[in-house]
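We emphasize that the prediction below concerns an isolated chain of 634 residues; any contacts that depend on oligomerization or on bound cofactors are therefore not represented. The input was used exactly as deposited, without trimming of termini.
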Amino acid sequence: MDENSHDASSTISRAHGDALGSLPFADERDFEAAQRGYLGRLEPGTVTAADGRSLWDNDSYAFLDGDAPATVHPSLWRQSRLVAQQGLFEVVEGIYQVRGLDLSNVTFVEGETGVIVIDPLISTETAAAALGLYREHRGDRPVTGVIYTHSHVDHFGGVKGVTTQDDVDAGRVPVLAPEGFVEHAISENVYAGTAMGRRAGYMYGAALARGPRGQVGAGLGQTTSTGTVSLIVPTLGVTTTGQEEVIDGVRIVFQMAPGTEAPSEMHFYFPDRKALCMAENATHTLHNLLTLRGAVVRDPHGWSNYLTEAIDLFGADAEVAFASHHWPTWGTENIVEFLSLQRDLYAYLHDQTLRMLNRGLTGPEVAEVIELPPALEDAWHARGYYGSVSHNVKAIYQRYLGWFDGNPAHLWEHTPVERARRYVDLAGGADAATEEARAAFDAGDFRWAAELANHVVFAQPEHRAARTILADTYEQLGYGSENGTWRNFYLSGATELRAGSFGTPTQTNSPDLVAQLTPTMLFDALAIQVDGPRAWDERLTIDVVLVDGPGGEERYRLRLEHGALTYSSAPQRTEADAVLRLPRASLPVLAQGTTDPKALAGAGVDVSGDSGALGRLLGVLQPGDPDFAIVTPE
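Result of the prediction step, given as a token string:
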């Protein structure tokens, strides 16, 4: 337990009491569903690296028992108790899930000769442990196929824990994924991967202590594993709704669902088992339209339409629906009701936000006044454990109107630090502002206390009293959050204010992902690292020649000029300053910043012309900082 942590305030305790009285806690059907088909668990429920480091510890959630303590919202406590259940479960005969060994589920579908693996978790180590648990109960069946439902790392990162590149290359294990999978899987984890990874540490509470005053879960899953992220490129792309494939004797009918929870996503149906996989578009929570770690804003209108299409395509026949998070839903009527409520949830948020923004309300104003209809408010699977109504409607506003709310005063504001200094001066100095924050805290107005104390911390980062009251305020806001990711953000902020930065616990831009960068994606990844002012006066050209391109040599001209790195594959009329000749497999060497001639030669890179040109280019690159400040200005 954090020695600086406090009990829940009376304000938070009263709010939790209100939730206990208003929500249908007597409904125990989810607990029955979450245990249905249980076959056994991993004992102990931990996964370690070869060097003994803990990569996953589901046993650390053993405290999730009994009634919710005052320091956890009772609804989130209920969700975490459900999500923390670990083990192998039978969905229907021939389809099995391992839950509770990573943020996501892995599903095993038995074929004629082996087993098809759906969404092999984040880490190779947790995926291997899940496969081992399956084999312990169902026999040592070989893996005969892999399916990625979509392009987020918790649905492909562990693939080399269940199969090998050699087996895929030999044609023994086909790997299926929706169209655009590789592009989106790589770009999300590389282009903005440093910033997303740092913020994901907050979102999932990966560095927080487990317990009633710390991390209790993230709503969608408990947290992220911290093992080895891998990638095997798909060998079979799914491109159209209605496409049917047979893998190891198992018939699968696919439905495309791009631009929903992920840019590249699909649902699919097993007609011979009447089982419908909904990927991550229908889970037991309101999902994110803009994840707190950062991403492109998702389309709730398209999302709801694809759920309607899933009902139309499969709703009359499906007898079980399962997803890559949480527990299944059984029974045709229950499935249609579940999918319909999920569909209406995203449609309602979209349509009501548009209605109100067209009446002049801004995103924060919509978030304060929008109310869900009772049928959605009372549905446990529609509650905001991962996404929230508040940040989702702000995301919808952002999707349509952007960051600017139309008020000219917000068009050219000072930076957070400069605003903070002026607000602190206006309040009569840091001490006076901190006292006002403390008064707001004592009155239970934690939102105002956070705003005031945050201004002091950004104006005077070393002001100990302000840091203390801000940490205490974040702690109470975390205790009061029904949303798992909000709780983790608040408590992570409190942790860093008290103990300093914990950095980025889980980094997803692994060598496997970097190795799959196309030439143009690699050049884009370099371009976004160029420190513009340092490169203003630099002019250079480099030709990158891939000696084993699909049609022979493949040539690209890189040009650094005016602080911008651009590229072209068109024939050039001038000689480049330098020419790099290399096989495609050696492209990642350029991303590593290597300029040593021996190292380059050893990696198969031949440099001719101005040997210093590559060093000048790499010398103006500024990599991301996985330890950048969040709750303090620096």
